[in-house]
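Our collaborator T.R. sent over the components below with a one-line note: 'Predict the complex.' Nothing else. No constraints on interfaces, no templates requested, no preferences about which chain binds where. So this is a plain run: every listed entity goes in together, and whatever single assembly comes back becomes the starting point for the next discussion.
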Amino acid sequence: MPEPDGDLSLDRLIHEPGRLAILTVLSSVTDADFVFLQRTTGLTKGNLSSHLTKLENADLVEIVKSFVHKKPNTNVALTPEGRERVARHWEQLERLRRLSKS
Amino acid sequence: MPEPDGDLSLDRLIHEPGRLAILTVLSSVTDADFVFLQRTTGLTKGNLSSHLTKLENADLVEIVKSFVHKKPNTNVALTPEGRERVARHWEQLERLRRLSKS
DNA sequence: GTGAGAGGTTTGCAGCGCCAACTAGTTTGA
DNA sequence: TCAAACTAGTTGGCGCTGCAAACCTCTCAC
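Returned assembly:
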């Protein structure tokens, strides 16, 4: 029940390392496909797949499946809400960090 | 298997919100007692207790128990190693964040 | 056709965070 | 004096969730 003085609580959905990596990569580009995300984040396919599903369910990313060169292609982009929540998360972290430098 | 290009991996032990809060608070003071940490982090006693145990096992904090005014008192301080690893963690986060702002 | 590989998804489990319940001791007050 | 209430924690049980391995489906080379 005790709320911290300034709210230090972090959104687990975003804070989780794997997803934070995905979201951060996504926020530097307009969109990215599965393979690119896998290489940049270092996640295994399985992890990446399940994280993407969670992010999609939370409306943080939009996923478009199609075929490119006859191969399945999964394209991922942040939703506006996702972009905003990631930005807010970094602010939250910044706030937390400032505590330690004062 | 695949390592990311630049290492984006985050230390779960430190990254976990509850512990990150504890460690960050601790890095702004020389030491703190249980009740102070509970108030500043907003964690429940149970959480705080188990997080502290983990941090102690990992040698990130040192815990000294004593009695103050006849009451049990738990005093916590970062170890040198803890201090360094927390600092490194924030650098790691900063590196990750820069990806998204380039 | 068949073997290898790309591109994912599903499954199983281990580990962890979270709250509730409990312990141990102290103070209050009837 | 004895019990109720409070302080300061610790422990246990449960449910979630991250992880890797196994699996699936399609394509291409031979």
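Summary for T.R.: The radius of gyration of chain B is 16 Å.
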